[in-house]
Amino acid sequence: MNTKDKYGRTLAYVYLEDGTFLNAEVVKQGYGLAYRYFFFKYFDEFKQYETEARE
């Protein structure tokens, strides 16, 4: 699994103390995008969240 993007930034899944999946929430609210440079575990879900956020 890649832990860095092409610019050397850390790639990680972040969960808050209450169990909220922060990565998904950021995309759902339109503040982030699904990372497209390689497939990852939640790729399909994040693409859907991104589409819904644009509507």
UniProtKB/TrEMBL annotation:
Residues 3-55 form the TNase-like domain. Pfam families: SNase. SUPFAM superfamilies: Staphylococcal nuclease. One of its GO terms (molecular function) is nucleic acid binding. This is TNase-like domain-containing protein. The lineage of its organism: unclassified sequences, metagenomes, ecological metagenomes.
